[in-house]
């Protein structure tokens, strides 16, 4: 994190960077027996250093989340807790044109393969990189992501998150920090972004145009940090055209129990002549749900501290009315676009498990953009 000062020198002015987080802060290690407690406290400490006090409701930072998913209910690739990756940091610096600072750039990169020598190239190793650039004139941000898996690390995730400045963000069971001062509430919020996909990553790459992460209990109450009753809910638009629909008439277990049309009609998944199977990649239900409609599939219980629910959708005319891609290939490699997504309206059209007499207005605490090279 950094702070920009604009210093006047006679008739001219220049920008100066003050880094608010140094290597000592970054390298703080766990002094407690409870790593979850320490992770929370370190995030709050770093947020206090980065806090921008330009209003009565300050904000802290963008969040980049790198995850190793190589342990789940179906694999044992990691028989013990994994080791942290190698991370190299390019601290933010000003790029000038003549005497005028025009942008701010920085980033980090690294690998999970601890014996890798990246000075000799990536080779067959895992690799991740994130770079950022801020236009000092317009204030706009450009984030560029790259993610490469390896034989030892075939399931890696890299997210750009805009989290709420306080409260329980999706996927976390503690009070976090972020950049959004106002909590977006369905159905009244939109997201505007420009996305330029350079390389797709193959058929196994679940490349999200947008991933909304939220948290509420099955009875409709807000999450409170109790991992036994909290549920993280995700809605994810996959735009990789090589990703197929697992939701099919012969595989109803991967479909939500019903689909809500743009006009509010309900179509059950066994209505094979009407249900839009190709609009969904998969649906899975939270493991702590009490009254499930068969057939059902429980979401992976290992990749979140609490139960989770996933609604993964694909480009389809059903979603296009909300600004989302209408067909496979829209917005993919060679087709950069600026999207204005009516995320709130879409979320109110999606099925999420809940007990009877629960409010339908879903509260979203974070949203994430995946590999973006604009």
From TrEMBL:
This is DUF7705 domain-containing protein. Residues 10-354 form the DUF7705 domain. InterPro entries: DUF7705.
């Amino acid at each position: 994190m950094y702070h920009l000062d604009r210093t006047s020198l006679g008739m001219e002015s220049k920008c100066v960077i003050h880094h608010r987080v140094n290597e000592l802060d970054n390298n703080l290690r766990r002094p407690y027996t409870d790593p979850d407690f320490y992770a929370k406290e370190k995030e709050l400490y770093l947020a206090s250093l980065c806090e921008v006090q330009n209003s009565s409701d300050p904000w802290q930072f963008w969040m980049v989340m790198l995850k190793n998913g190589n342990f789940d209910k179906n694999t044992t690739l990691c028989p013990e807790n994994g080791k942290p990756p190698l991370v190299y940091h390019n601290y933010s610096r000003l790029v000038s044109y003549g005497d005028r600072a025009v942008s701010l750039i920085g980033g980090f990169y690294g690998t999970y393969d601890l014996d890798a020598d990246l000075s000799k190239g990536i080779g067959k190793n895992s690799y991740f990189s994130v770079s950022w650039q801020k236009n000092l004139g317009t204030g706009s941000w450009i984030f560029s992501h790259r993610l490469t898996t390896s034989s030892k690390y075939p399931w890696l995730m890299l997210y750009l998150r805009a989290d709420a400045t306080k409260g329980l963000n999706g996927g976390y069971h503690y009070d976090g920090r972020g950049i959004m001062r106002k909590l977006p509430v369905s159905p009244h919020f939109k997201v505007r972004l420009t996305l330029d996909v350079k390389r797709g990553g193959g058929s196994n790459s679940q490349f999200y145009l947008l991933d909304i992460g939220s948290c509420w209990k099955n009875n409709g109450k807000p999450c409170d940090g109790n991992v036994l009753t909290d549920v993280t809910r995700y809605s994810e638009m996959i735009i990789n055209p090589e990703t197929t629909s697992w939701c099919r008439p012969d595989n109803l277990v991967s479909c939500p129990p019903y689909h809500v049309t743009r006009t509010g009609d309900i179509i059950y998944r066994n209505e094979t002549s009407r249900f839009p199977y190709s609009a969904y990649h998969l649906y899975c239900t939270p493991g702590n749900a009490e009254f499930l409609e068969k057939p059902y599939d429980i979401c992976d219980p290992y990749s979140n501290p609490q139960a989770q629910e996933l609604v993964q959708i694909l480009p389809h005319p059903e979603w296009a009315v909300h600004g989302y891609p209408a067909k496979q290939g829209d917005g993919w490699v060679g087709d950069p676009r600026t999207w204005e997504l009516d995320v709130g309206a879409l979320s109110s059209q999606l099925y999420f498990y809940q007990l009877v007499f629960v409010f339908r207005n879903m509260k979203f605490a974070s949203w994430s953009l995946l590999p973006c090279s604009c």
